[in-house]
Specification:
The protein is of the alpha/beta class. It is built from 9 helices and 6 strands, in the order ααβαβαβααβαβαβα. 44% of the residues lie in helices and 10% in strands. α1 crosses α2.
Length: 212
């Protein structure tokens, strides 16, 4: 077998150098540069930058929320697991309600998915929080319904659900939602937990003034 790089620091530095070399960042706002690099690093697809979408106030609002100690509400455990806790600037709480014992019954009563029903348990934590979706389009749809119904307004929404049923549509709904909540999304069918948590990590690193 050929020799391969083994030093963790060297691998890390080389990886991000390659990402920056192969990714066209010129068309993105400066505020999204670090986010884009981490998303590409998470998925291995430099062309995904063409699918990135965000409101002008997303980075500022999400970063300020993290610095203030706002919680992160995640649609699944995989998203939460991908968030590097040592990067978080205020020891922010990371909340996942999907496995709450009340969720299966609630989903049955609502006639929806467990992922969507779990979002109903976020109400007491949503005010000023950062909401992170990396798995279920139904969860993102339900979140938008709750906001429309008058649920507390989050500081930002990261919408990266993946799949072929509802994923693209849920992110279109996020971008066009009348509440004008600051948002980040990966348009189309691509997305996933790793990319959603990569967005959080990029914001956290920048907010805390850490070296990437």
């Amino acid at each position: 077998m050929d020799a391969y790089l083994k030093d963790p620091k060297a691998i890390y530095e080389a990886s991000f150098a390659i990402v920056r070399e192969q990714t066209m960042l010129d068309g993105l706002p400066d505020s999204l540069g670090d986010v884009a690099v981490r998303v590409v690093h998470a998925c291995g697809m430099p062309d995904i930058v063409t699918d990135l979408d965000a409101s002008d106030d997303f980075t500022a609002s999400a970063s300020a929320a993290l610095l203030s100690g706002a919680p992160l509400l995640c649609d699944c455990a995989m998203v939460a697991s991908g968030i590097t806790r040592r990067f978080l600037p205020a020891d922010n709480e990371v909340i996942v309600t999907l496995n709450n014992s009340d969720v299966p019954g609630l989903a049955a009563r609502m006639q929806t998915t467990r992922s969507a029903a779990a979002v109903d348990l976020w109400r007491d934590h949503m005010d000023g929080a950062v909401l992170v979706f990396g798995n279920a389009p139904t969860a993102l749809f339900r979140c938008l319904e709750l906001i429309t119904e008058g649920a507390p307004r989050p500081a930002a929404i990261i919408g990266c659900p993946v799949g072929f049923v509802g994923a693209a549509e849920s992110k279109q709904a996020l971008a066009g939602h009348g509440s004008a909540v600051p948002y980040f999304a990966i348009r189309g069918t691509r997305g996933g937990s790793a990319m959603a948590s990569a967005v959080v990590n990029a914001l956290a690193i920048s907010s805390a003034g850490l070296a990437a």
